[in-house]
Every structure is written in structure tokens, then in C-alpha cells.
Amino acid sequence: MLLKNIYNYYCCTVSYYSRLNIQLKLKPRVKVRQYSTLVKLEELELKYSENDQEFILTTLNTATAEHLKQLNISQNRINSLKTWQTNQGTFKSFSDLLEVEGFGIKILDKLCSSIISNQSQSESTPAISKNRRHFVIPPLNKQLQNFTSAIGLYLGPVGVSWSGLTKCNELKEWDCLKFPEVSKKMLPMDTFNLAQTILKKIPLADFYVFEAPMYIAHIGNKQTIVHNEHLELLSMLLALLNTSRKHNTQLTEENVPNCVYYLRSNLSARLFRTLMGSERVSTTPAVNNLLGIGTIADVTPKISLIFCEELKEKYLSQNGINRELLGQALLLIVTFMEICVHKNVESLAAVTQGKKNGNKNQLN
């Protein structure tokens, strides 16, 4: 009996210390492994500047599968990236990328190097760098450092529309306002009141982007009146947006920084192929492709757009006139993001190669 008790005590003791040994040895190993990953992640983040990190994350958030293949990413990892985005949303940090299946520190480092290297090669292309300064006025440089979102504003003959995109190409705002019908020429006060009405509707953003008005010569008297009213409204919106403390958050009593930019006229029409000669055609095929409901192949460049179903249904429920207004605003702001913010090589090539020598406007 004594031997049996001693044996049972021995077995219990061995079992206890075995469990204790597991707790003492295995848990620290897990912590050491996690700590090691965090250290390597911190080293990786120090390797790239904040601007580089933003560019890398934006590229991965907006790039198509074809673009990712050019960065030497395998199809399996591309699928993993897209799956994570579908379930979790946009990548906001390098740590998010480590959550993607198949991505470790070494793979992430190679991917970052490939993206930065591709950016350097694209920026050194002579044809692109030569024309880039003409795409938007005033020029954008330091303003992009703290940039998060922009609103594209389209002034049409029957109304105004706006579309808002974040830096990650997420569609946040999309609406339009029909102009009241007037039987006579608008007086300056009428134009000012209309501009104030529009201002109250415009959502908040860092930048507000219009299409630069084209230089028009040899037009009829009625067309001249409409064109001049358009310029008056455009000028008043420029002044109101820049002097509104609500819309221009950098505004001070001593300084009025600019937050309004003009995209080269017909640039969005060239990018999305809605320009036939000097006439624009419907934006519907291009917008449908952006919303994933297009049926015509190769109508638009392959651009990844993030949007909610509510905005999509809102667009589809509009009549033809309102739908065209919404379409023009969306193509305008997407073009601004592609050309001026993300500097997408394929999009830049599309608008520079398609340029006609006879197409003159104020930005030339």
C-alpha cells in the first residue's frame, strides 16, 4: 500500500511539473516570436518614409489584379489580398498586410521595394513628366502630404453635380442639384445666390476640383451669354469655397490658402473615351464599368473603385439628365485621383498619347 501511494504521488508530481513546464516554456516562446515580428515590423516601417508607406498602401488598395502582377506578386497572393480587402476593407498600415495569408516580413519587404521601384521608374519617364504640370492648376505638390479626400464638381448647363473620393478611391459622396429655370439673363446677384445655394450642398473635403473652362471663340450671342454666366458662377464658387471656414479648414485671418483646383478641360473625357471629335458622348458605359455593371469590354481604364450599394442604386434610379450629371462628376474626380494623386502610369499614358495638337484650352 505504501509503495502504491508513493507511486501515485510520483505520477501526480510528474504530471504537475510537466504541465508547469509546458506553461513556462511554450508561452514565452510564443511571446518571443510575437515580439520578434513586432521588432522586424518596426524596422520595416523605419525603412520607408511616411510618404512611401502611404504610396504603398494606396497602390495596394487601388491597384487592379493586372497591375499587381506587374509588381511580381503571385496569383495566390493577389487573391489573398483581394479576399482580405473584401472582408476587412482597405489596408491602413503594414500590420494589416501581415494579416493577409501568405504575407510575412520578407515578402512584405520585397513587395514594398517593388512598388517604390516601380514608382521611381514611372516618374522618370520623360513624356509623362513633361506633361504632368499641365494637368491641374494651380500645381499640386506639398498639398498632397496631408491629403485625405477630394470633391469633384461638375457645372453643366442644367445643374451641378459633385462626387467625393478618399485617397483610397472610396466613393463617399455623390449627388446633384438642378438649376432653377430662368427666362432671362441672370444678374450678378442671381448668380451669387445660386452659388451660395450650391455651397451649402457641397460636402467637406481637402480639395475641390472643377474642370477648367475651355477657351471658346466664334460662338453665337446666346452661347456667349451662357458661357459668361458659367464663368461667373465658377468664379463665385472659387471665392466662396476658399473663404468658407467650413470648407477651407486652413483658413486664417492672415492667410487664405487655396483649396480649389482646375483639372484640364476634356481630360476625363479623353481618359474614359467619352470624347468623339470635339463632342462628348454619354458617360453611362464608363460609369457602369466603374460600378461593376458594364457590359462593354475595354471602355474605360481598369480602375478599382470602392463604393456602397446605396450609392450605386441611387445612381441607377436617376433619370437620364441627372444620371449624366452624376456621371460627369464621378469621371472628373476619378481622373483627378488617377492623374494628379496616384499618378497611375497607365492612365497618364492614356491621356498623353490621346492628346491632339489642336485641342487648346487655358491650361496649355
TrEMBL record:
A Gene Ontology biological process term: transcription elongation by mitochondrial RNA polymerase
Taxonomy, superkingdom: Eukaryota
Gene3D superfamilies tied to this protein: AF1531-like domain (1.10.150.280)
Coiled-coil regions listed in the entry: none
GO cellular component entries: mitochondrial nucleoid
GO MF entries: DNA polymerase processivity factor activity
UniProt xrefs under InterPro entries: RuvA_2-like, TEFM
Entry-linked PANTHER family: TRANSCRIPTION ELONGATION FACTOR, MITOCHONDRIAL
Entry protein name: Transcription elongation factor, mitochondrial
Taxonomic lineage of the native organism: Eukaryota, Metazoa, Ecdysozoa, Arthropoda, Hexapoda
